[in-house]
Write a structure and sequence with these properties.
- The complex is a heterodimer.
- Chain A is mostly helical.
- Chain A folds into four domains: 126 residues, Cytochrome c-like domain (Cytochrome Bc1 Complex, Chain D, domain 2); 61 residues, no CATH class; 130 residues, no CATH class; 55 residues, no CATH class.
- Chain A has 18 helices and five strands.
- The N terminus of chain A is likely disordered.
- By secondary structure, chain B is an alpha/beta fold.
- In chain B, the strands form 13 sheets. In chain B, strands 7-6-18-17-16-8-9 form a seven-stranded mixed sheet, with helices on both faces.
- The longest helix of chain B has 19 residues.
- The chains are: A mainly alpha, B alpha/beta.
- Chains A and B meet through helix 13, strand 5, helix 15 and helix 18 of A and strand 2 and helix 29 of B.
Chain lengths: 424, 1022
């Protein structure tokens, strides 16, 4: 599934590249404006208020050059809109009034060339259909599924063949024995068919018992554990898009991870910090684990519905409803776990327990969250012994380090595997 | 020093056969106590296999292979101040029935879950009581009224306002009366005043269920001030209590107990302490903590006061005190008062104005005014005047009252002529109740306008003149209730200002700005920057007049009845609180109900058949108590230290059926025995008689559940002996020293644990533990300790992690009492640890004896092997923690979804068949350590506090890291209290982590020979 997505992405990338090239090349011969540079500038300076196709705080920028009577004036407007308004330019003043007299931020630091780069980028973008580039082909992804390195099936078949051979050999052996006995005149009992042979039956029962027992125990241990649990969520929220592609810090949304035992699922107002502006999804195509395509913009619309935001009017129009996410990481009630302990005091990365979250469109449980898993980590993980002054009271351990008896201190050595560290 | 004999009850003192029997038996009930029929049934092998198969299948189904799908629902718009999983604290005030305790409320995810004392308050300094600790549970009381109603049907506030407005307008000048208990809020009083000003002839009547009217009137007569002065026990070296239980129930016991405790802290370097004399009729908490205690009949209170006045040099002729012991005691007390003039204090619990005038006269002579009694900043703890109330009731019956608005008072239950009040209320045109539940008075009111709980409301409180504390909402109102102040503002036509704004405006103008108001709310208090100088008052009381009235007062009878308040239940206002109902009474160790306390001597006069097993069997004989033309049937309880001619019964029980499941039907109401002497209510009668009924009733006692079998667990000495030789009290510990310094390591088969970082330890001072039980309830709130109910307590199944053992010693008619808090001792060589077959209880590197509930299979080996008997088994599923819903054993709605909001989310609830015990509040220790780790500094002493330690008003409990040489606990053990420090059952070498400080009594040391012979006599008895 992950592989599939990455292939799609690659494909995407190529088509975007081709498209860009086809638009950019003719211009580049005329002017030196670089849409690639412009994109970066646009995202740093303009994107918080402008979109190419949509009205945000400011107008949609598609066709902006055509709307302005004079490119020089446009440069001036961007450098300092107030000065243009002061000249009494009609278009500028109309625009100002149309947007509730919200003055555009002045960008005196942008050079004219840089502004041209941005405008070039806008031109490239406006040529695309709104809502992002449609994939060039919707065909099923290439099914280049790897067979994997799992040889167990092969081993199983070989074992089975060997077992049959062994059985045949045993049968032959007993037949030969019988023949030899007959020859010598030693009376031998009538042959017992193998399915009535007590030795065989006992062996089969033993094997069945062992196999059954193994699966029963494994099943029992697995009760309540849900590694790889990946439930469907009310909104297709992709960590890959947010934390991976867009590099949003985990703690921006999961602010509790630093302060509290709960990492906290962000409240909807945190989502709206960005999604007031980001109204549509224009990233790589999203698919569910089952391969169904996901319309990212529609998912953002779901958020608006929950929170009661009208993107057209640009305001909250109805009371918000909370989103009922399905909880993935469930610890039993008798376990105390504290995120801030691990993130702040323990300096652990989120990925240590949650896996490659930046690669996951839909989050699944990466670790089995079993006690053995916790304990193993506590046995091997080193605490910030020298750096954190809290541990200064452990005089003996400090002495041992000095004496080179030990080179580091694990969580276990400061009591991290005791019952009441987690159970109370 | 020879060991005193301690006994927890008479059968232990006399070592009866039944007692020996129970000591031998591990369990107080026959085992097994499941259905007999099932166990006796003969089960053929095939049936057995069928059952086995069925139960296995059932268990598998119940365990449910399907993992339930859980939802995680974030806020839509997260309040800035809430971080799920992190507690927020808000300052508030406990100001109920005149008690004044500034508190700090701990909230989690917007739910208040624990109250702590506000350490900024100069009055209480962070102290709390059991009642304060229990108050958070009352917020989630299922019996609270949830909406306004008219004539019993739900209505809206708008409709109620409309109807009341019309009704009030139609009164035609008939007076409106607001009837309340003592109110401490000056701004609420202002709102009430504005409301009443709209109606001519209206008045505010203050009525206290247990009245201090006599004291108020006496102070008016003596000093011209109708106030309760502020007491300063901390300045007193000699204190005489004439029936004033200032440690348990008198006025504001949280404040006084803390002050008193400061005079009882003692070490060998500074061997000084106050001396407390108690003269009383029944065994009160103050009497139990007194250095010298004398008993008299309640009718003799005046005589004792007069005799004391005469003895300190007052110009009265002393009446003859028949009891020579009491007479000698008065002489001794007087000498002590005179010797400590200027550092002396006499307090009286009498509600008789004349007795209080005499007490004022004594205080005047011994120089208490301005030193231990302060009239410059008086207290507001009680304001009710009895005659105001009786006048109101007669006015009501005369039909001259237009409207009665009841707020926080419940006269239909606790007024002595409740029937008369009820009839009078019928003649009142408008009866409104603001009470929080459908109590006895509210039931009679047509209009019900329920007030918020104090944790939901804005308020202020002026405990002492100039000392303010504030309350702010810590949760949105759970129900459709409305603050009484909002209601009154609306009814007085002020519809523009909400109560919150009204209070804010009032204080901003007083404090001078928003910033000051914000700080006041954050601190919770506003107090004078420097404590004002204590002020006396010129005594101008009519001693002769009071004396003559006392001598002509009602003569004592053969048998007298005295009514008292229990520490946990008080007047009964907060009786519907399962925590407080199940808190063992400090003296009797009984839970859930009241009973007739009598002396053994009295018990024998009318029934010689009480039997040896009297204290062992939970079923007690029921007595019919008659007095004052009324009678009542209650089980009897023999209480050592009762005056032989006195019966004592607690008020606050026998509540109506609608006040809630915990209080309804528990005990009997004894307020009808109160009488009015023309000026004040008397809380005793002199014409009591008792007779046996032949019935039996269960009294759920806790103390008889275990036995120490006479081992030396309490150490005590007298001040005189302590000064002479401070080491004597611990003489026996010297024996251990001769084994050498490695004894700790060598004398055991146990592994010698090392404690590389922290080693937790606790010290409990038996001298300042007064047995009030605040720690027990604080622990219950902090650790989700289950409530088990009366029947289960009677079976010794109570769950408290910290209990307070009460031991008597000496004379059974007037014994000495010692309180010993007992909790898991977290032994280094813990006997429980190595008998656990599944390793569920084991040792941590910080010295904590850990309990892993989910490993426990309930063998109870650990409890058997525990020398301190502090382990508690969950005999039933008290919390719904089992997989099977039907297993739930719910007591008084403790498992209602509303009540469960009080649970501490950091501590699990335990399921059936699991052992539990004190964890040293490990969740708090972990939190404190984590905070230190995150901040990158070593754990500071005092950063980790256990719930019991924090709740203790007397600071009797000190807790900390004994590896830290700068910690208080280290200093106590190794520097300050080397002489008094001992471990309980140290000779067993279990190496407890809790040390105790020996009790020191400030009494004349009894000659040793006499003591020894007394011991021998007791031995003969046995």
């Amino acid at each position: 599934m992950y592989r599939r997505v990455s292939i799609l992405l690659r494909k995407h990338f190529v088509s975007v590249l081709i498209l860009c090239a086809s638009i950019v090349i003719p211009f580049s011969s005329v002017k030196a404006a670089d849409p690639a540079k412009g994109k970066a500038l646009f995202q740093t300076n303009c994107a918080s208020c402008h979109n190419v196709h949509k009205k945000l705080t400011g107008p949609a920028l598609a066709g902006v050059e055509d709307r302005w009577p004079d490119k020089k004036l446009l440069h001036q407007w961007i450098h300092n809109s107030a000065s243009v308004l002061a000249t009494g330019d009609k278009y500028a003043n109309d625009l100002f009034n149309q947007y509730n007299k919200t003055a555009m931020t002045a960008f005196p630091q942008l050079s004219n060339e840089e502004i041209d780069d941005i405008l070039a980028y806008v031109k490239v973008e406006q040529a695309k259909t709104p809502g992002g580039v449609k994939p060039t082909e919707a065909g099923a992804p290439e099914g280049a599924e790897d067979k994997g390195n799992d040889n167990s099936l092969l081993f199983g078949i070989i074992t089975l063949i060997l077992a049959v051979v062994a059985l045949i050999l045993m049968q032959i052996n007993s037949n030969l024995n019988k023949l030899a006995g007959d020859k010598e005149g030693v009376p031998t009992p009538d042959p017992v068919p193998f399915y009535k042979n007590k030795a065989y039956l006992a062996l089969i029962i033993l094997v069945l018992f062992m196999v059954g027992g193994y699966f029963t125990i494994q099943g029992a241990i697995g009760l309540g554990r849900q590694k790889d649990y990946m439930p469907e969520q009310p909104i297709f929220y992709s960590h890959k898009v947010h934390a991976g592609i867009n590099q949003i810090n985990c703690l921006y949304c999961h602010a509790g991870a630093e302060k509290s035992k709960h990492a906290m699922i962000p409240s909807e107002n945190i989502c709206m910090n960005c999604h007031k502006a980001i109204k549509e999804y224009s990233g790589p195509e999203l698919t569910t684990a089952e391969g169904k395509k996901v319309d990212g913009t529609a998912e953002i619309a779901k958020l608006y519905d929950y929170v009661g935001w009208d993107p057209e009017a640009g305001k909250y129009t109805k009371p918000g409803r909370p989103i009922e996410w399905t909880k993935i990481h469930n610890l039993p009630d008798h376990v105390y776990f504290n995120h801030s302990q691990h993130v702040v005091a323990g300096q652990q990365q989120c990925q240590t327990c949650h896996g490659a979250i930046t690669e996951m469109d839909e989050v699944h449980q990466f670790s089995d969250l079993s006690m053995g898993w916790c304990i193993n980590c506590h046995r091997t993980t080193k605490v910030q012994f020298a750096d954190n002054n809290y541990y200064s009271i452990f005089e003996k351990l400090h002495q041992d380090i000095k004496d080179k008896k030990i080179d580091s201190v694990t969580v276990e050595m400061v009591g991290g595997t005791e019952c009441q560290k987690c159970h109370y | 020093m020879e060991q005193k004999k301690y006994w927890k009850g008479l059968e232990e003192l006399h070592n009866t056969d039944a007692h020996q029997e129970i000591v031998k038996n591990e369990f107080s009930e026959e085992l097994p106590f499941e259905s007999e029929g099932l166990l006796n049934a003969t089960t053929p092998r095939r049936d057995f296999l069928k059952y086995l198969g069925f139960t296995t299948a059932a268990a598998a189904i119940a365990a449910s292979c399907e993992t339930p799908v859980k939802k995680a629902i974030p806020y839509v718009n997260k309040p800035e101040e809430i971080t799920p999983g992190v507690a927020n604290y808000y300052a508030s005030s406990y100001a109920i029935d005149g008690e004044y305790v500034p508190v700090v409320v701990k909230t989690r995810e917007g739910r208040p879950i624990k109250l702590e004392g506000n350490t900024l308050s100069a009055i209480t300094q962070g102290a709390t009581s059991a009642k304060v600790q229990g108050a958070v549970l009352s917020l989630y009381d299922t019996a609270r009224l949830r909406f306004p109603s008219i004539g019993g049907t739900e209505t809206t506030w708008a409709e109620l306002d409309k109807q009341i407005g019309a009704a009030l307008a139609g009164l035609g000048g008939a007076p409106v009366v607001l009837l309340s208990a003592t109110l401490l809020s000056p701004t609420t009083k202002k709102v009430i005043g504005e409301f009443l000003a709209k109606y001519p002839n209206s008045r505010h009547v203050v009525y206290d269920a247990v009245s201090y009217s006599g004291m108020l009137q006496a102070n008016e007569a003596s000093y011209g001030k109708r106030v309760v002065p502020s007491y300063h026990f901390e300045n007193a070296k000699a204190i005489v209590s004439l029936g004033a239980d200032f440690i348990g129930t008198w006025l504001n016991p949280v404040e006084y107990a803390r002050q008193f405790a400061s005079t009882r802290k003692i070490n060998a370097q500074k061997p000084e302490m106050s001396k407390l004399f108690a003269f009383e009729s029944h065994m009160s908490l103050t009497g139990a903590n007194a250095d010298e205690r004398y008993t008299h009949k309640p009718s003799e209170t005046g005589a004792v006061a007069l005799a004391l006045l005469a003895a300190v040099g007052g110009s009265v002729t002393a009446p003859a005190i028949a009891d020579k012991r009491v007479a000698d005691g008065i002489k001794k007390a007087a000498e002590s008062l005179k010797a400590n003039a200027g550092k002396a204090l006499v307090v009286s619990g009498s509600n008789d104005v004349n007795v209080q005038i005499i007490v004022n006269a004594i205080n005047n002579i011994v120089g208490a005014n301005g030193t231990t009694i302060d009239f410059a900043s008086p207290s507001n703890y009680r304001q009710g005047i009895d005659s105001d109330m009786t006048k109101l009731v007669s006015d009501m019956n005369a039909g001259s009252i237009g409207a009665v608005l009841v707020y926080g008072a419940n006269p239909a239950y606790d007024y002595f002529e409740s029937q008369k009040f009820a009839e009078g209320l019928k003649k009142v045109k408008i009866a409104v109740s603001f009470n929080d539940r459908n109590d006895e008075t509210t039931e009679l009111c047509k209009y019900v306008a329920p007030d918020h709980h104090f944790l939901e409301s804005w308020n202020d409180a002026e405990g002492r003149a100039g000392y303010y504390s504030f309350a702010q909402p810590t949760i949105l109102p759970l129900f459709k209730t409305r603050a009484i102040q909002d209601t009154l503002l609306t009814w007085s036509g002020n519809t523009t200002t909400t109560w919150a704004d009204y209070l804010k405006n009032e204080w901003i103008s007083k404090l001078g700005g928003q910033e000051a108001w914000d700080k006041a709310l954050q601190d919770g208090i506003v107090e004078p920057a420097t404590a004002p100088a204590l002020g006396g008052a010129a005594f101008a009381g009519d001693i002769a007049g009071a004396a003559s009235k006392i001598s002509s007062a009602k003569k004592g009878g053969k048998l007298e009845l005295v009514l008292y308040e229990k520490v946990a239940i008080g007047t009964g206002r907060s009786a519907n609180n399962p925590w407080l109902q199940e808190m063992p009474d400090p003296i009797t160790r009984s839970t859930w109900g009241n009973y007739a306390c009598i002396s053994n001597k009295l018990a024998k006069t009318f029934s010689t058949q009480l039997g040896d097993d009297y204290e062992i069997n939970a079923e007690k004989k029921v007595l019919k108590v008659k007095s004052n033309g009324k009678e009542i049937e209650l089980p009897l309880l023999i209480v050592p230290g009762m005056h032989p001619e006195v019966i004592a019964i607690a008020v606050g029980y026998g509540r109506g059926n609608n006040v809630g499941r915990a209080a309804a039907g528990i005990g009997k109401n004894v307020y009808p025995f109160v009488s009015f002497n023309g000026q004040n209510f008397d809380y005793f009668t002199t014409d009591a008689s008792v007779e046996a009924t032949g019935q039996k009733e269960i009294v759920a006692l806790t103390q008889t559940h275990n036995s120490y079998e006479g081992r030396p667990i309490v150490k005590e000495t007298t001040l005189e002996e302590f000064i002479k030789n401070p080491k004597e009290v611990n003489e026996d510990r010297l024996e251990l020293k001769k084994f050498g310094p490695d004894f700790r390591k060598d004398a055991t088969l146990y592994p010698n644990y090392s404690y590389p970082g922290i080693k937790w330890g606790m010290s409990i001072d038996l001298n300042t533990c007064f047995g009030c039980g605040a720690c027990t309830i604080a622990c219950q709130a902090e650790n989700n300790v289950s409530v088990v109910g009366k029947e289960e307590v009677a079976k010794a199944h109570e769950m408290h992690w910290i209990r307070i053992d009460r031991y008597f010693s000496g004379d059974e008619e007037n014994p000495e009492v010692v309180f010993q808090p007992m909790l898991c001792q977290h032994c280094d060589n813990a006997p429980c640890e190595n008998v656990c077959p599944v390793g569920a209880t084991n040792h941590s590197s910080e010295g904590i004896n850990q309990m892993a509930y989910n490993r426990c299979i309930g063998t109870r080996y650990c409890a058997n092997n525990c020398p301190y008997k502090v382990r508690r088994l969950n005999w039933r599923d008290w919390n719904g923690a089992d997989s099977f819903e039907n297993n739930l054993y719910d007591v008084a709605d403790m498992n209602d979804n509303l009540t469960r909001m009080v649970l501490n989310p950091d501590v699990v609830v335990r399921s059936r068949g699991v052992m539990e015990k004190c964890s040293f509040c490990v969740q708090r220790l972990q939190e404190a350590k984590l905070d230190a780790k995150k901040a990158g500094h070593p754990l500071k002493d005092g950063a980790a506090k256990t719930a019991c330690q924090q709740a203790c008003g007397a600071d009797a409990i000190v807790f900390g890291n004994i590896n830290d040489k700068n910690s208080e606990i280290y200093k106590i053990r190794n520097e300050q209290q080397v002489d008094r420090m001992y471990y309980v059952l140290e000779e067993t070498h279990v190496l407890p982590s809790i040390s105790y400080l020996a009790k020191i009594r400030n009494k004349d040391a009894a000659p040793k020979a006499e003591k020894e012979s007394a011991h021998k006599e007791e031995a003969h008895h046995a």
